Amino acid sequence: MTEGAEPKPARVVVADDQTVVREGIVMLLGLLPGIEVVGAAGDGEEAVELVAELAPDVVLMDLRMPRCDGVEATRRIRAEHPGTQVVVLTTFADDESLFPALKAGARGYLTKDAGGDEIVRAVRSVLSGDAGLSPSIQRRLLERLSDPEPPQPVAAEAPDGLTAREIEVLALIAEGLSNQEIARKLHVSTATVKTHINNLFAKTGIKDRAQAVRYAYAKGLVRPPMGGIT
Question: CA–CA separation, 8 vs 34, rounded Å?
């Protein structure tokens, strides 16, 4: 490249299963300096195929998609095409979306309220070897590193097919925490907490939070307070 010449634009593939959203992102990127959209995918499987065909510099990856979700697509792209970086662009900023995506190899993570300048910065950052994280995501990572881990369940084996996360939620219910407090403790959305509660109620036959507390003590998932529970 000669002195003073503009750097080559970053070649980008957009992956989002919602047509209107995908087309809107493509249109926005077309207006941004230093970015060239070379392809658009409607799901993770198609995104992997486009990366193999087009060898883009960056994929802007949604997470919740059919056939192959964004986390799995990211994992496959980073394993099979290490020259392509992945920046997540999603509606979801809870821990259960963020950390699996980063572990799968995403170098950037933005929410869909990000502006054009923020997207350009993230793309340039990942291409230069840095992380392209929005300020809110950086704060979340710092909070996760500084906060103590939630208490681990006592029982070694999960009864009634409960997942580890469902047992964590159950233990926090037994501590008397509200859904909002549990969400803050686990760094997830309140909606995610409600989903876990609905699932564990369905698996155990529990009808309300009082029964949940009794179940947690009976199954040894939490230690009863001094004097036991009546």
Answer: 7
The answer for residues whose C-beta is within 8 angstroms of residue 216's C-beta and 6 or more apart is: 170, 171, 173, 174, 222
Q: Which of 183, 116, 119, 101 is nearest to 150 (CA)?
A: 183
Q: Which residues contact 193 (CB under 8 A, 6 or more apart)?
A: 169, 179, 182, 183, 186
Query: How confident is the model over 32-36, as a mean pLDDT?
Result: 91
- The backbone torsions φ and ψ at residue 77, rounded to the nearest 5 degrees and listed phi first, read -65, -45
d(CA 61, CA 107) in angstroms, rounded, equals: 11
Average pLDDT value for residue range 84-91: 92
In which band, very low, low, confident or very high, does the pLDDT at 40 lie, cut at 50, 70 and 90? very high
Strand partners, 111: 90
